[in-house]
Amino acid sequence: MDNMRSYNLSVFPYSRDPAKSGGNPTTIFLNAEGLDDLQMQALAKESGHECGFVLSGDAGWQDGCQFTMRYWVPNHEMEMCGHATVGAIWLMDQLGKLPSTDGLLLSTRSGKVEARVLKDESTSTSRVLVSQPAGSCENLSGDIVQEIVSCLGIATGDLAPLSKVQNACTSRTKTLIPLKSQAILNNLKPDFDLLRDICEKINSTGFYPYAFIDNKDQIVDARQFPKSVGYVEDPATGIAAAALAFGLLSDKSVSSDVKRPILVRQGWSMGKPSQIEVQFRGTNEDIEGCWISGNVKWAEE
């Protein structure tokens, strides 16, 4: 491959229209073998958002992978980043740098990740699917729930009935907080110092409050408040959306039908409308994990 180059993308925008805002920015660095940890973190700090670094498969932690991926935010390295992975595979497909194979295996600190590229010849577009393992979910105690509610500046009565506040995890643990309405979601005013302290106490990497837009069509609105990455809110979080899908499955809020996607909208209250598609993998009776996917577009250099 050639010398290292960087590319700016917007991943999971609701619209592919380059004139419209939306999506989560990422900078992808190809051929990043020559960078050490300090250099990767410095580049993430300079960008102000998540960055994905693509290295050869031989540079990774697992055998049999075509590529290795590392992920940095301004404050630290992450084991896995959904939107940077989707963006990196989309980018390499656009540049003709992917091997001719139906599926790709990526080596990450969170384990092997599978990626697929689906071509739509009628629209000349590509859609990238990235795998996540089956999620685990844990209901949180009433005392912790009260702390979370106070941190968000809402009342217990603002929580959605019949749904639980949970820690859920595929690659990273997120705290899922079901709310009665989008209005409550959009008006949240977290105490970020308290949020960080609660996340430390419950081993979570961030709060993911959400509200259903359409139960029948499985459309959910969400916001992501990370514990400590260098900014206070994220416009589109693939790993959190995957965790949410398994939280919703655990309390029977969504179908286990592997052909029915869950659409997670995020970033709308930030003026960055985004949408992440999550689809379960396996069979309806035996869910093995999920796929995350969504739109990608070029961002300004």
**What would the principal axes of the Cα set say about the shape?**
globular
Largest sheet: 18 strands, mixed
Task: Output the CATH class name of the largest domain.
Answer: Alpha Beta
- The name of the CATH architecture of the largest domain is Roll
Q: What's the pLDDT, averaged over the residues? A: 95
Kindly give the count of domains.
Answer: 2
- Helix content estimate: 10-25%
**Assembly state (oligomeric):** single chain
The CATH homologous superfamily of the largest domain corresponds to Diaminopimelate Epimerase, Chain A, domain 1
CATH topology term of the largest domain: Diaminopimelate Epimerase, Chain A, domain 1
**Can you count the beta strands?**
18
Report the sheet-strand fraction.
25-35%
Class by SSE composition: alpha+beta
The gyration radius over C-alpha positions equals 18 Å
Question: Which regions are unreliable across 5 or more consecutive residues at pLDDT < 50?
Answer: none
Q: Report, as a whole number of angstroms, the end-to-end distance.
A: 22 Å
